[in-house]
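User: Teach me something about this protein's shape.
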Amino acid sequence: MNKSRDIENALQKWLENAERIVVVGIGNELRQDDFAGVDLVRSLKGNVSKHVMLVESETVPENFIEPITKFNPTHILIIDAGLLGLKPASVKFLESSEALGPFTGAISTHTLPLRLFCEYLEKTIDAKIALIIVQPKKTDFGEGLSKEVGEVSEKLKKMLRGILSSP
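Assistant: First, the predicted structure itself:
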């Protein structure tokens, strides 16, 4: 992960004054590195504060809009693999202003583009939205993350556990 300290600092700054946080993991378990977002969220179970709601949305985040809105989060963090045009296992942290720009339209290959999902949430809930996007190496049919994405995923898991475990 390039500049992992920069991503951690940006995430901590973004989470200042957070009261309730939703973390949404997006991905397809049968498309190798595309599963990185869900894999990360699964690893957080039992390791986060009671003020954090974890959502394993797989490829249909829109199916979780109702439970997310009922939780009434102040912050929504979406984690997904996406085509960034960077070296495999590169990671980007994007706040909603960046995430809702033209960049997001090319990121995801899921049923509902992330841009529409984020826009709907922004209009429905008064919450800050950000994304952590991991550049996949392999998205062919198959199971398991590539070595590179697996390594960066472990670093992200450790970072997120540390940040989200406080009361």
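Now, about its shape. The first helix runs from residue 4 to 14. Residues 29 and 148 are 17 Å apart (CA to CA). If you'd like, I can walk through any region in more detail.
User: That's plenty for now, thanks!
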